[in-house]
UniProtKB/TrEMBL annotation, chain A:
Keywords: Cell membrane, Membrane, Transmembrane, Transmembrane helix. The chain crosses the membrane at residues 12-34, 55-74, 80-98, 118-142, 162-186, 198-219, 234-253, 260-279, 299-323. It holds the Pfam family Cyt_bd_oxida_II. It is a multi-pass membrane protein. InterPro entries: Cyt-d_oxidase_su2 (IPR003317). One of its GO terms (molecular function) is oxidoreductase activity, acting on diphenols and related substances as donors, oxygen as acceptor. Belongs to the cytochrome ubiquinol oxidase subunit 2 family. It comes from Melghiribacillus thermohalophilus. This is Cytochrome bd-I ubiquinol oxidase subunit 2 apoprotein. Its main location: membrane. One of its GO terms (biological process) is aerobic electron transport chain. The keyword Transmembrane helix applies. GO terms for cellular component: cytochrome complex; plasma membrane.
Automatic annotation (TrEMBL), chain B:
The lineage of its organism: Bacteria, Bacillati, Bacillota, Bacilli, Bacillales. It is found in: Cell membrane. InterPro entries: Cyt-d_ubiquinol_oxidase_su_1. This is Cytochrome bd-I ubiquinol oxidase subunit 1 apoprotein. It comes from Melghiribacillus thermohalophilus. The chain crosses the membrane at residues 20-40, 60-81, 93-116, 128-152, 186-207, 219-237, 316-341, 353-376, 401-423. GO terms for biological process: aerobic electron transport chain.
Amino acid sequence: MSLELLGISVLWIFLFGYLIVASIDFGAGFFVTYSEWTGQKHVLGNIIQRYLSPVWEVTNVFLVFFFVGIVGFFPKTAYYYGSALLIPVSISIILLAIRGSYYAFSTYGSKDNKWYTFLYGVTGVLIPASLTTVLTISEGGYLTITDESVSLKLTELLTSPYSWSVVLLSIVSVLFISASFLTYYANKAEDTRAENLLRRYALGWSVPSVLIAVIVFYMLKSQNLEHFQQMVDLAWMFMISLGFFMIGVYLIYKRKAYGWAFTAVMMQYFFAFLGYGASHYPYLLYPVLTIYDGFTNETMAIALVVAFIFGLLLLIPALYLLLRLFLFNRDYVKGNE
Amino acid sequence: MTYDATTYSRILTELTLSFHILFATIGVGVPLMIALAQWIGIKRNDHHYILLARRWTRGFTITVAVGVVTGTAIGLQLSLLWPKFMETAGQVIALPLFMETFAFFFEAIFLGIYIYTWDRFKKPIYHFLLLIPVAIGSSASAFFITTVNAFMNTPQGFEIVNGVITNIDPIEAMFSPSVPTKVSHVLVSAYMTSAFVLAALAAYQMLKGKNHEYYKKALKITMIPALVFSIATAVVGDFSGKFLAEYQPEKLAAAEWHFETESHAPLILYGYLDENGEIKGALEIPYALSILAGNTPSTEVIGLNEFPEDERPPLYVHYFFDLMVTLGVLLTIIALLYAMWLRWKPRLAHHKWMLRAIVWSAPLSLLAIEIGWFFAEVGRQPWILRGYMKVPEASTTSPHVGTLIIVFAVLYVILAVGSAIVLRKMFKNNPPEKELQEYSMKHGGEIHVS
């Protein structure tokens, strides 16, 4: 495996990690707000708070890790994406800042403020929407590139059906992933009412998530034919993804093995995401930047890989401890501790 | 002001950094202070110190949250506002940036665990142990990120052949000459500032008439480290002067309005420049600059005139430098007075003027941090990467930076106001006396509540 491929694979896996943990977080925000409107906040509030409180910062670090890593391995991305994405990424930063700080304010400070809950719910939907514009832009056609500058064709981005279908996909996926996880968590906490509600949400968002994914796939054909073709060539990955989707939904429907159901949902997204990424190869940005010509020098790449391995040796036990104490600790989950 | 992407990018970066640095500084120093309080509490079996650690932790969660989100902002803004800098420097200095995220990751995980496990362990020392990775992680973050700033001042570890960067050595780049003085100055000044901020909280309550033991203990456990770290900051500051004289003479020369290269150079304090560029109204300390630069009056100090005009930092950095040093001296005196009185005249240590001075030490030390960073950053101008890349070559060409300045300014105001309100509420509605009473009722009066 070349260093370029190793670098992008590591980053892609971390991005997938962010996709899962952030989706759970973002979706949770939406569900809490929604359940407040429908007068069912008491059903969900506790369970979601117990899960999110110790982990929200960790979620944020996944994102930081990804963008620092991609600039490290592929410094040219800083030039292209950095120049072009000033507006959309700044919007994401602001939303993330509001969400993160107000989450802390409401959790550790004053409880039950309607305004916080509202912000928390709204940002949960808007952040994935704004972040996915990066993936949309990577398909090419949204940038004006000259020798001196790179700039974004904002109107084209905002009027593009492909762009909006990706936004829709991200939101629906967030809700589906989040609901499947929280169903499992509520079940562990033996909170039947929350479990039933969340199970309904999970089933409700399941089919739309796949339908919209198919729509995005067809939209891509007119946006980037080359990428579309490569995705067709990798169709088996998407079939596996679909298989896991059916397993996950079946288990949730049958109220069986929620843990496995959520694992299946994760695998569904893992294969879809991997298929998308692999068919995107070798381009970081169609059609101007590949992982080969955007790559850093070999010395730096090796240094980063070594740092990454040592970093993981520290992180994995630490993450295990975190999960052990909060996620897989029966007493904590149930609220006895 | 006509639109200029570079100037606007500088303003936005200054805005974000000057907001973030307050929270980052507290984020580096406070874990150490919490650890100190908890450790003493466990060792002496004194619940007051444990409660102190616990209350500081609660407040810390809020400042950490703001630190995390503004840190994410500056991390992304580096690429958004300075894409060409990141493209170039990223090839050489990406390693510590990458390692910083690991340190931060580590810190975030253990902080999450620490906050939620106060009463979960039978032996309190286990809970204390969880804090060690937090303190190490936060100081390590500061270390790594400061090495990147050091690299911008004294870049090394690469060669440029025909405009292409080659022969890259990431380790050499990471440990550039300014690392020792810069990193130690950042760390000890962060510990110092955090100690003063926490001391000010106790002093403020005492000024309002609270006289519980708890506050006196809080004052002592913060002011003694504040003294140690303010002296350490001054010592490291002196080393920084020597470092600058050798590696970044133009920065020292601009800070000191030192134009001609000479030995026996005097130190210029304050003053102003008249229309002919003559120094007026300044306090001159003979030989002091030479001594700062090289320990002896005969040390030759390079003057600003040795540098081409377009490579000189702006002369107003002189005021940043003087103000930073003045504040540092003032803070050391406050801490020293407290310590001396506590030792020889304990009654005066809690005199209202002493307490007032301690309350003031919090804003003054935060101001010193700000001014110090302004000196460090403006003193590097016109370079973003000293000797290789000037600021205008590095910035974005986007026409939208102006709008974003306004938007981010609003965001930071919201965050500042929000965190102030939440922190106030958090402590006002739940004073330590109340918590101590609850504790002693639960534990059958083991602790005297007077």
